[in-house]
Design brief:
Layout: H1 5-15, H2 22-26, H3 39-45, H4 48-60, H5 69-82, E1 85-92, E2 100-105, E3 107-110, E4 113-116, H6 120-124, E5 125-126, E6 146-150, E7 157-161, E8 164-175, H7 184-204, E9 213-227, H8 228-231, H9 235-240, H10 265-280, E10 285-290, E11 296-301, E12 304-305, H11 306-326, E13 329-332, E14 346-354, E15 357-358, H12 366-385, H13 387-393, E16 415-416, H14 419-430, E17 465-467, E18 472-474, H15 484-505, H16 513-528, H17 540-549, H18 557-561, H19 567-575, H20 581-635, H21 641-668, H22 673-691, H23 704-709
The structure holds adenosine-5'-diphosphate and magnesium ion (MG).
């Protein structure tokens, strides 16, 4: 009764070749964006006037003229059909965390024949039967349906499969009472809020206040690849995305030989296939490399406007998964697929531009520097005041395993500015204090900042929120999470801080503007510099220091979600029209539900694996030892008995212990999530200890050293 699944998997992996992606590899840069309904295509397919109206909507954020929808729909269809599409779908991002689509063909019967048609109405609005999406009580199943509404600021694109293609139209998803049921709607609202606040702030600095504001986002995406043969033998990976059992291998990442190492040809084949697909979709995939953990990798695109970048990251995750399948891999996007090695995150590089100038780029003259320092101080204030919201934006059952696990930033939100910038802020704070020892005072609006070298600012990988030269890098988001959550919060809290700054500055006379600004920035720094921390965020001493500074340390999803509905936060989001109270309550509900469901699924999966795979495997081993003992006694040999007896004892005790922990887990499954997590952890400990004591052929589950190294 030997179980040879694992051995067969290894044999198959060693003899199979990764698919050679001939047709995709031929695609070059000339095909970049060929599956996107972009400005160039619009000019080709639309009447001139319609085209310029649509471009105004897209570029200047003007409201869409409904009269042009019919023309646009027709053009989109003509273009999509010419590129092989037969169907279209509104593409949206419900609160499941993924994307959703419901396809309709362009087909329209016409007599005994049929033709392809697409109306303006079908472009602008869709009515998916959306009653089964999570809404946190906003729209019970018997109420009116939700509807999807075209977001013209994110271009339509074509998704391909082996036997056709579909036109995808990015949309927002709302209830008929106008409440957001998705991740895009509040993001769009938050962009508006931050744009308005930025224009107002820039007006205080003598700008027209009418310039275009662009929030930009570059998302570094981490992921694991494992061979599909192994994946299929792991019910935990199939059901939960992470391994619920598995003993740590002798070698994992301690030699640090994987990070930036040469990329194996099979993986490179996969990566270039992913890139070709992304490029066709106009997604500027740029960087690829091996990450710290074995079998872990990263993909980073060039940054884009934040709404587009969030949509693009959803597509990146989808294409990573699909392309992996094609290459005989499975792409794991879970935040912590393997215990004991690094988990995966998603670095959220964020900045804000006014009239094409990045406000997080230190300028080259005193006025630009004054703006930079003002923006910087406002962000420091925002992050300190709303650390709880930032933390809640990255909460989730998966990310709980990663944050604070000494490989990802701790669950304490702090900011890293780099030594040089910190010194500058110190000078700013001391600006009027002439006798401060060895600190050269600095005067806002008079002095010019020294150039800040970009590289020197990016050395602290332990900080959740780091200034990296011309942007902030929020490193806490999890690899599987949509980027919208984090950016909604960032946009809103910075909008609020900008507005507070403008409230102050608008009352200041031009003559003493810079002096007043300086003293105001000093007040902000004094009040909020506790959030700045340049040291090592992985150390115990930081946990203690952070506690002394009064910084919140929110370890779990359950704790972190609570702040969503606190009176101050309801007020904040309502003020900026990003979330209503009801919407916040619904998101709180959805977050909790999602968490509970995931933990329960994990618990049930662990129990089933233990009873149906691990215990039988150990029993098999136990039986083998007992048979050997019996045989040894019968034949009267004297050597080896002691070893066999001690093996039998270890296995017998292990079996008892497994059984007890299974029983406890079964009971825990009827209770609270903490109990489930603890019971799973205890069961896992026993199983992992037995893994190295059971003969290889009796262990049913692919082991860490196999999954992480054989591919
Ligand atoms: P790292 O050292 O963290 O790899 P990179 O310079 O490679 O840093 O940038 C990481 C990400 O940040 C990339 O996606 C990049 O496009 C993005 N990025 C660079 N500048 C900006 C910016 N001004 N706004 C938003 N993202 C940016
Ligand atoms: Mg980075």
């Amino acid at each position: 009764m030997r179980n040879l699944n694992r051995q067969n998997a290894i044999r198959d992996i060693s003899t199979s070749k990764s698919p050679i992606v001939t047709e995709a590899v031929q695609t070059g840069i000339a095909d970049y964006g060929c599956d996107v309904f972009n400005a160039e295509v619009m000019r080709d397919y639309l009447p001139k006037e319609t085209c310029s109206k649509l471009l105004q909507t897209i570029e200047k954020g003007k409201p869409l003229n409904p009269a042009i929808a019919g023309d646009v729909a027709h053009a989109m269809k003509e273009w999509a059909v010419a590129r092989g599409a037969t169907s279209y779908t509104h593409w949206f991002q419900p609160l499941t965390g993924g994307t959703a689509e419901k396809h309709d063909s362009f087909l329209e019967p016409s007599g005994s024949k049929a033709l392809f048609a697409f109306s303006g109405k079908n472009l602008i609005i869709g009515e998916p039967d959306a009653s089964s999406f999570p809404s946190g009580g906003l729209r019970s199943t018997f109420e009116a349906r939700g509807y999807t509404a075209w977001d013209p600021t994110s271009p339509a694109f074509i998704k391909r499969h082996d036997n056709g293609a579909t036109l995808c139209i990015p949309t927002a998803f709302c209830s008929y009472t106008g409440e957001a049921l998705d991740k895009k709607t509040p993001l769009l609202r938050s962009i508006q809020a931050l744009s308005a606040a930025t224009r107002r702030l820039m007006q205080c600095f003598g700008c027209s206040g009418k310039g275009k504001v662009t929030v930009t986002l570059g998302v570094e995406q981490e992921y694991f690849l494992i061979d599909k043969h192994f994946f299929l033998l792991r019910p935990d990976l199939i059901q939960t995305g992470r391994t619920l059992f598995g003993a740590p291998p002798a070698k994992h990442q301690q030699l640090e030989d994987h990070y930036f190492g040469a990329i194996r040809p099979r993986v490179l084949n996969f990566m270039s296939d992913v890139e070709q697909t992304l490029w066709k979709l106009g997604i500027p995939a740029k960087t690829r490399h091996n990450e710290v953990a074995p079998a872990q990798f990263e993909l980073a695109p060039v940054f884009e406007e934040v709404n587009l970048a969030c949509d693009h990251n959803m597509l990146v995750m989808e294409i990573l998964r699909q392309t992996a399948e094609k290459h005989g891999f499975v792409c794991l996007l879970h935040e912590k697929p393997f215990a004991g090695v690094n988990g995966s995150g998603k670095h959220n590089n964020w900045s804000i531009n006014y009239e094409g100038r990045n406000l997080l780029n230190p300028g080259s003259n005193p006025q630009d520097d004054a703006i930079f320092l003002t923006v910087l101080c406002a962000i420091i204030e925002a992050v300190d005041l709303h650390a709880d919201l930032l933390r809640s934006a990255v909460s989730g059952a998966g990310n709980d395993h990663r944050l604070g696990a000494n490989e990802a930033p701790p669950a304490i939100i702090s900011m890293y500015l780099g030594d040089q910038l910190e010194a500058i802020l110190e000078q700013l704070e001391q600006g009027s204090v002439q006798d401060a020892a060895d600190i050269a005072p600095m005067k806002v609006g008079v002095d010019t900042l020294p150039p800040l070298p970009r590289d020197a600012t990016d050395r602290n990988r332990t900080s959740p929120f780091a200034f990296t030269g011309n942007k902030f890098e929020f490193r806490a988001p999890g690899s599987s999470q949509s980027c919208s959550g984090a950016n909604i919060i960032l946009n809103v809290i910075v909008a609020e801080a900008f507005d507070r700054m403008s409230d102050f500055l608008s009352g200041v006379k031009a003559a003493d503007f810079h002096e007043k600004l300086q003293s105001h920035l000093q007040v902000i720094l004094k009040a909020h510099k506790r959030v700045i921390f340049n040291g090592d965020g992985y150390t115990q001493s930081w946990l203690e220091e952070a506690a002394r500074r009064g910084l919140p340390h929110t370890r779990t999803t359950m704790e972190s979600l609570k702040c969503l509905t606190s009176p101050e936060n309801v007020q904040l989001f309502e003020k900026y029209r990003v979330f209503s109270r009801r919407e916040l309550e619904s998101r709180f509900e959805v977050g909790l539900e999602d968490y509970h469901r995931k933990i329960r699924i994990e618990g049930r999966t662990a129990l089933e694996m233990a009873t149906s795979q691990i215990i039988p495997g150990v029993q098999q081993q136990y039986l083998t030892v007992l048979n050997s003992l019996k045989l040894a006694r019968e034949t009267g040999v004297s050597s080896g008995l002691e070893a066999l007896r001690s093996q039998a004892a270890v296995l017998g005790e292990g079996l008892d212990s497994l059984q007890q922990h299974c029983d406890k887990l079964r009971v825990a499954l009827g209770g609270l999530h903490e109990e489930i997590l603890a019971a799973m952890q205890n069961l896992r400990r026993v199983a992992d200890e037995l893994e190295v004591k059971v003969a290889d052929e009796n262990w049913p589950l692919p082991k860490y050293h196999e999954m992480l190294f054989i591919y």
